[in-house]
Amino acid sequence: MHRKTQTSSLCGLLCAAALLVAYPAEARQDDQGGGGSADLAKQLSNPVSSLVSVPLQFNWESPVGPEDDTRFVLNFQPVMPFSLNDKWNAITRVIIPIVGQPALTRGGVPASGISDVLVSMFFSPAEPGAFIWGVGPVMSLPSTNERTLGSQKWSAGPTALVLKQSGPWTYGALWNHVWSFAGNNTRSDVSQMFVQPFLSYTTPKAVTFAINSEAVGNFEADSDKWTVPLNLQITKVLSFGQFPASYGVGYGIYLAGPDSAPSWKLRGLITVLLPRTR
What is the domain extent for residue 146? Predict the structure, then answer.
């Protein structure tokens, strides 16, 4: 099982790299001009932009479990903006994690499937001022009966985002906190915070260099409450058939976390942009 997991992870990484390199000829021509592609790249750095997008985020995390194996997490993250009126937009963001992981303890068994699904709704001004911001509710939906993949709890709370875009720079932070209110009574309650500070720079040729963290605080844990990765990634707007798309790769290290946390991660990203109907 150990070798099988390593092989599948390596194949997935090679596929992601191939997708990043083997882009169509018309996309190469766009490299010369930038313009519209650079504007799209900058909008992708804004989580509450008016773009309809379908991001796929491939993560390989290691070492995990007693055999120092690799965990694979595919985050399917569609973003759907809507115009409520001339003054307000509503942006729905869904994160569906699809996980394949080795046994986490000796004598345990590997697990795979969908982890808890997170649904966020941001209400944001249609005409932002100096800062772009959004606030709203967030809910975590129990989506698996596998104990090692999900909390088996319904959880909800607030979420907020603030950012500023100045020239090629985008910087800001996204935050949410969920508390459990229903679910499996035999499982621990949930009180979890997510904090994502981010900084990115977009070039005229639609290449974006970004650094961020995706810190998670588990306030029900007795110790080692925070898991803090530091991620570096590079993305490029090209095309996906008839649609513009962003391709990227990244690498992360874990600055803090419990003993069970991995030490590093590799990441591949594909974000397809779709027409907005309203």
Answer: 2-274
Nearest to 41 by CA among 186, 197, 210, 267: 210
Does pTM top 0.90 for this prediction?
Answer: no
Domain with residue 213: its CATH number is: 2.40.160.40
Rounded Cα distance between 251 and 253, Å, is 7
| Residuewise pLDDT in 10s, the chain (278 residues) | 333 444 444 444 444 444 444 333 333 334 434 458 899 999 999 998 889 999 999 999 999 999 999 999 999 999 999 999 999 999 999 999 999 999 999 999 999 999 999 999 999 999 988 899 999 999 999 999 999 999 999 999 999 999 999 999 999 999 999 999 999 999 999 999 999 999 999 999 999 999 999 999 999 999 999 999 999 999 999 987 788 999 999 999 999 999 989 999 999 999 999 876 55
Beta bridge partners of 170: 165, 200
User: Could you give the CA distance from residue 210 to residue 84 in angstroms, rounded to a whole number?
Assistant: 31
Per DSSP, the three-state class of 130 is coil
Count of domains observed in the chain: 1
- Tokens 């500070």: give the residue: 197
Distance between CA atoms of 37 and 188, rounded to whole angstroms? 46
Report whether 240 contacts 272 (CB < 8 A): yes
* Residue in 42, 29, 74 with CA at minimum distance from that of residue 208: 42
Q: Which of 76, 41, 80 is nearest to 55 (CA)?
A: 76
Tokens of residue 153, six digits: 């709890």
